[in-house]
Each structure stands twice: as structure tokens, then as C-alpha cells.
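Bumping my old thread because nobody answered last time. Still need a sequence for this structure:
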């Protein structure tokens, strides 16, 4: 399976004040798309999105988020700390006029950066949140930790059977790269997210967004953005800047399995649309 799942991207490591950030780059002369994965994944799990955007002419950079892949842990686990690391990376790489795409935890990171005072927010020309994590309740989130930490730190020979059983419709390379991501993931980073001692929400902060933003939602049965939060986002969003779109036939893993095609089509259309 190794050869068919080869990724034609370059591995780089960038040193920031907190430590190392590892990334994959699909070089191109076109505009830059920066990709942020979800919890317990890594840059390699964005193999298909990275390759497809690169085929469209984008220079694609997929980050190993803190505590994932080959990147160091973040000094704290709150969303703003993680977002600041992504912002620092954008500045260190000298990026401008970028498209920022984040799934789940990566979507929360994207929205946190766009609604922050970090100077790098000005480099983001447009952004996509793929079924993003918008809020978390301290009384509930710890109960999610066993589910989301399953397989973390385990070798692929342990996790591959589990992944195939629970996700029978994934592409073979989705299994391969997710198993690698789980093996490299640090439990401390995952637990740090779900054991935050206070409630938090990003919904009101969407009003600070200054770039066109697309929010993609999985089917109601599977999305992690409940209707009340969707309504709050729509009410607080700057007029004309934010779109919200449900992608039929998808679950939360919108970038894997049969839901990838329509999800990618929506991302592609939004990134190709002229800015107003």
C-alpha cells in the first residue's frame, strides 16, 4: 500500500518561538492555500485535498498542527494559543493573500485567527471552515476524550483494523494516512483540548471576520455544529461575508470517503469565486 499512497509534497520544519512546526508543501506559482487538519489527524491526512488544490495551480501548505505529526506540542491548549501558532507560521513564511481551510479543530483554529488581533489575519484573503468546532462545554467535553483518543500513539497494525471497521467507505489511502497520524499524535494535545476547565465559544467572534468565509456543514445527524449554534453564527456574521452550506451525504469526516467529492467541489467553487 505504501507506493499507491505516496504523497508528492515536500516536508519542511519551521522553528517558531514555542518550538517546531512541521508541514507539507505542494509547490506552485499560484496563490497559497494553507490547510489545518482536525484533532488526531495530521498534514498527511490532507493528502487528497492538497493534491487536488495543487492540480488546480494552488501552492498548498498543510500544517502538522501542534502535538500532531512531527510538530511540537503547544505551550497551552486553548484555541487562541493554537491560532497564534498558525499566525506566527504565516508571518514567518512571509505568506500573503492566502486561502485558509480548516476542518473541525482546524476550523476552530481558523475562525479564532480570523477573529483575533494577530497581524497574520490580514494575510487571509478568504477562508473555509469544514464542519468546525465552534464551542465546547467543560461539563461535557471530557466524556468525548475516550472516543477521540482511541488509537492515539498506537502503531498502524493496531489502528488499521479499527479504522476499516468503523469507516468502511473510506479510500484506502485515508486508512493508511490516518493510521500514521494516530501513531504520531500526542495524547497530551488531545486531552488538553477536551479537558479545558471552562466553557468556550467562537460564535460571537464571527462578527469580527473581515474576509469572505464559507462554513460547510455535514448532514444534521453528523454535524458538530448544532442548529442553535448555526443560528447564532448567522445572526452574528457580517452581512455579505459569510456563507453557510450543508453538503448532502456527508458525515463529520467530510474530507474522507464518498463525501469528499461534493465537499471538495464546494471548496473549489468558493476559492475560485472573485472577491467582492
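Sorry it took so long. Here it is:
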Amino acid at each position: 500500500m505504501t507506493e499507491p499512497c505516496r504523497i508528492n509534497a515536500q516536508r519542511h520544519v519551521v522553528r517558531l518561538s514555542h518550538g517546531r512546526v512541521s508541514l507539507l508543501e505542494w509547490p506552485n506559482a499560484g496563490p497559497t492555500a494553507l490547510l489545518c487538519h482536525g484533532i488526531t489527524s495530521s498534514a498527511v491526512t490532507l493528502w487528497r485535498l492538497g493534491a487536488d488544490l495543487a492540480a488546480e495551480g494552488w501552492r498548498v501548505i498543510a500544517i502538522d498542527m501542534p502535538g500532531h505529526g512531527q510538530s511540537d506540542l503547544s505551550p497551552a491548549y486553548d484555541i487562541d494559543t493554537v491560532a497564534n501558532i498558525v499566525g506566527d507560521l504565516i508571518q514567518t513564511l512571509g505568506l500573503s493573500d492566502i486561502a485558509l481551510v480548516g476542518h473541525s479543530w482546524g476550523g476552530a483554529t481558523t475562525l479564532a485567527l480570523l477573529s483575533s488581533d494577530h497581524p497574520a489575519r490580514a494575510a487571509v484573503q478568504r477562508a473555509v471552515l469544514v464542519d468546525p468546532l465552534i464551542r465546547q462545554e467543560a461539563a461535557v467535553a471530557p466524556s468525548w476524550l475516550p472516543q477521540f483518543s482511541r488509537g492515539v500513539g498506537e502503531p498502524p497494525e493496531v489502528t488499521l483494523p479499527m479504522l476499516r471497521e468503523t469507516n468502511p467507505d473510506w479510500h484506502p489511502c485515508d486508512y493508511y494516512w490516518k493510521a500514521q497520524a494516530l501513531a504520531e499524535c500526542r495524547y497530551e494535545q488531545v486531552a488538553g483540548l477536551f479537558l479545558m476547565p471552562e466553557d468556550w465559544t467562537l460564535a460571537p467572534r464571527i462578527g469580527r471576520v473581515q474576509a469572505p468565509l464559507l462554513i460547510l456543514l455535514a448532514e444534521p445527524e453528523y454535524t458538530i455544529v448544532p442548529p442553535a449554534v448555526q443560528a447564532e453564527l448567522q445572526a452574528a456574521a457580517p452581512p455579505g461575508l459569510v456563507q453557510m452550506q450543508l453538503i448532502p451525504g456527508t458525515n463529520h469526516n467530510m474530507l474522507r470517503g464518498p463525501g469528499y467529492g461534493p465537499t471538495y467541489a464546494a471548496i473549489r467553487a468558493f476559492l475560485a469565486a472573485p472577491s467582492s
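The two ends are 45 Å apart (CA to CA). Let me know if any region looks off to you.
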